[in-house]
């Protein structure tokens, strides 16, 4: 059996974090969840992930800062990992700004869980 794709979720809302976790675990993804961007960078320095889901509005380090930090990592494989923005405030940023920051895709809140699964599967197909 192939090893499951590893997903790192950075989301400060435990409700959304738990829902995303359950849905993706049901799809055979292995999930690690954290509450802010700083924890994402710390984990990325120690572990490998196949995709990262980043909430835009988080304490300590938000999603925009975090994706830029990921793209600047010295480890080129980790710097290229697919990153998806999760946001309820899409009006604050244009699609162009998300792309320029380094995101591969954007999911709007309230989350469409079917779209979540489609996007995560598309970006992690080996």
TrEMBL record:
Response regulatory domain mapped to chain residues: 6-124
Residue positions where 4-aspartylphosphate is found in the record: 55
SMART domains: REC
Pfam families cross-referenced by the UniProt entry: Response_reg (PF00072)
Annotated keywords: Phosphoprotein, Two-component regulatory system
Record PANTHER family: HYBRID SIGNAL TRANSDUCTION HISTIDINE KINASE J
Protein name: Response regulator
Organism: Lacihabitans lacunae
